[in-house]
């Protein structure tokens, strides 16, 4: 292993600065980690970043919970425009986990009302009988 012979501040950890809190839109996903909801939370996180790339959504925070009173919890919160955080989805209130299409629509309607979500905006057609 070779080390640089000259001092380079870009590689000196003592010069690193923690990022300032973002003044942009943030999403927070609380989930019960007692029943392996991490995969669902990270999948939703990835999909939201792909649909609403930075700077539209500046950060998505995952909060694993394992207390008795948080058993079964899966909530999605949205913070934007210096408003208090708004609950976008609660598994217990809604009766299940969010369908990604619905979750994206709810978030879009708040932060980018004119944005097309492509196939997620399509209304299913009723098949006509012949």
TrEMBL record:
SUPFAM superfamilies for the chain: Thioredoxin-like
Keywords: Redox-active center
Highest taxon, organism lineage: Eukaryota
Pfam families per record: Rdx (PF10262)
PANTHER family: SELENOPROTEIN DOMAIN PROTEIN (AFU_ORTHOLOGUE AFUA_1G05220)
Protein's name according to its UniProt entry: Uncharacterized protein
């Amino acid at each position: 292993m070779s080390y640089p012979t000259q001092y380079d501040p870009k590689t000196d950890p003592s010069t690193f600065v923690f990022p300032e809190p973002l003044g942009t839109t943030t999403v927070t996903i609380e989930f019960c980690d007692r029943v392996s909801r991490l995969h669902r939370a990270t999948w939703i996180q990835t999909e939201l970043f792909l649909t609403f790339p930075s700077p539209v959504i500046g950060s998505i925070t995952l909060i694993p919970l394992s207390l008795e009173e948080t058993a079964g919890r899966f909530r999605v919160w949205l913070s934007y425009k210096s408003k208090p955080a708004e609950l976008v989805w609660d598994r217990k209130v809604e009766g299940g986990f969010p369908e990604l299409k619905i979750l994206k629509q709810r978030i879009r309607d708040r932060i980018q009302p004119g944005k097309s979500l492509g196939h997620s905006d399509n209304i299913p057609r009723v098949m006509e009988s012949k």
